[in-house]
Amino acid sequence: xxxxxDRTNRVIVQGVTGQMGQFFVxxxxxxxxxxxxxxxxxxxxxxxxDVPVFASVRAAVDATRADTAMVFVPPAAVLGxxxxxxxxxxxxxxATADEMPVADAIEVRAAARANGAVFVxxxxxxxxxxxxxxMGFMPSFCYTQGNVGVIxxxxxxxxxxxxxxxxxxxxxxxxxxxxxxxxxxxxxxxALELFHQDPDTHAVLYLGEIGGTEETFVAEYASxxxxxPVSALIVGKTAPxxxxxxxxxxxxxxxxxxxxxxxxxxxxxGVFVADGLRQVxxxxxxxLASRKQTASVA
Amino acid sequence: xMMLECDAKRLLASVGAAVPAGAVWRKGEPAASVKVAAYPVxxxxxxxxxxxxxxxxxxxxxxxxxxxxxxxKLFATEFGGELPEVLLVEAWLAIEREAYLSVAVDGxxxxxxxxxxxxxxxxxxxxxxxxxxxxxxxxxxxxxxLRAVLEKVEPDYQWREKVIALAQRLVRTAAARDCTTIEIxxxxxxxxxxxxxxxxxxxxxxxxxxxxxxxxAERDAEKARADEYLRACLDxxxxxxxxxxxxxxxxxxxxxxxxxxxxxxxxxxRPACFLDCSPGPTSTRGYRPAFAMLDADxxxxxxxxxxxxxxxxxxxxxxxxxxxxxxxxxxxxVVYRLDGTNIDQVPGIFxxxxxxxxxxxxxxxxxxxxxAGTRA
Lengths: 298, 376
What we know:
The complex is a heterodimer of chains A (298) and B (376).
Chain A: E1 11-14, H1 19-31, E2 35-39, E3 47-48, E4 51-54, H2 57-64, E5 68-71, H3 75-87, E6 92-95, H4 102-114, E7 118-120, E8 126-129, E9 133-136, E10 145-152, H5 155-167, E11 172-177, H6 188-197, E12 203-209, H7 214-222, E13 230-235, H8 259-268, E14 272-274, H9 280-297
Parallel strand pairs in A: 1-2, 1-5, 2-4, 5-6, 6-7, 10-11, 10-12, 12-13, 13-14
Antiparallel strand pairs in A: 3-4, 8-9, 8-11
Helix pairs in contact in A: 3-4, 6-7, 7-8
Chain B: H1 5-14, E1 22-26, E2 41-45, E3 58-61, H2 64-75, E4 86-91, E5 95-106, E6 111-117, E7 131-136, H3 143-150, H4 157-176, E8 179-190, E9 195-197, E10 201-204, H5 213-225, H6 228-235, E11 239-242, E12 247-251, H7 254-266, E13 273-276, H8 284-296, E14 302-309, H9 314-327, E15 334-340, H10 346-351, H11 361-374
Parallel strand pairs in B: 12-14, 14-15
Antiparallel strand pairs in B: 1-4, 2-3, 2-4, 5-6, 5-8, 6-7, 8-9, 8-10, 11-13
């Protein structure tokens, strides 16, 4: 299995006629994503690839029974587009935009909750369930189907981390980019909970950064009884305090948000912490091995 | 992006929060031109970095002579590397007590959080952590919920009710005006029991520039403060932080850029910067100013290009590198590590201008560190 996304999701793309939308439709279909419709106001009746385009999410959902939305519209328009998808019954909404105002993200997150749906983003490459479907523009060759769930605050780092474990023969159930912003549609805690419930996920690899408090969720999960083993990498060892390192949330505001404190907190919680990218494979192998030991003891 | 105290207080005053009567004194204006209603006054350096109070950035002046002397001194002093362009001259307050109040965006709260400490002032970080009310979405603020939190730490009920009323207004303001932090420290009680914001820090969300004239202006001002090279990079939406090493990193994605920095350090080198070029066009137009800035920076000995792209297609990046290299005058060596979508097309393009793409981040970082060592 996987979390949130597989071949059964019926996906619409909002902003389908834009450059990213067109690239995504072609790339994601090739991968197996069940792309049922595009939405672009004023372009109803046209097609992208051979995907039909509708003027509204309502029209697209009525015609195609879509249940999942990919939002590829400019940052200022994400709030409106995401709310439209949520209120038309989409149960998974992914927005990749990396310049979405945080006040808008707060509103979309609240709307997702109220509608019993999941919002992934903003500022994320999306998510992929290898061998099944992808929602985002991650390079497909970095992934292979398997039993490690990957959670990442950063897009390109998730490609790098996933490729490393793929090359080492470790496949992934789902790789989810939770994004680099302070308020996330899906938090590390929520992603961990989803992986915890997924029988095909045997261990979780968490790719984090300095700044913010997301890593406390990871430590809390790892210390829980019956938790699946977790490996982790925190980047930003060389980042100075008080400076925003690209991501709005990647700013060391207090000592607890620094690299050493986060590594220690995770280690103390029983997480297999990689000290640098070169140790990601070994840490993940150790996490998987610890599960086998626990299983054989039980 | 951090606002100056004087601008933050103007915003607070506009939503009905009490702030001291004050006058703005710009660099170059004579002391006599500053409108002072009554002495003594507090003369406060207007800078964006924190810790100003501890660095002597607030000076008391009892008369016009002292005001002139304070101005002369403060305009000539750097605070956190920043020379003040503006001073704020305010009525000196008869402080009865100092508290702390802030409203901030908080991931755990899924929105906003209210923080309050009954003891405020410059040593706030050393005291007990403030009481915390996770609001979440701004419309979820409830007076009675904050009251229940504050009852545990603030026994003065009259003061407490004033704090609650102010906090409610600040949460609404943060949401409506795209503030990620509104911090009032100290929040002062005067001898007559009234409440006033003696200092204020407000950070605005730069991504709300499209709906806020003030934020757009602040972004422009930030660019205007940068030198020509950095300005060209900021025009391309690049994100830059200067570091103290000699290996200039051009990368894409915040996590990947930090991973490249860390890898350089792991291989025994020192990164010269964080330069994330992914938000802008990943074309020649985007990379040209990045190279121009690092080529012009005398502390940079080697340029390390590390890009792992998904939506960013590698054949485009490789072609951009080819074009930039053809027009570049610098002899600083460039080390490449590209990977991601269409990576199979990169070796052919690199062969056209004699570049080599390293197979892994560690290999490329090691090569960059070695080159930096030979150019000491």
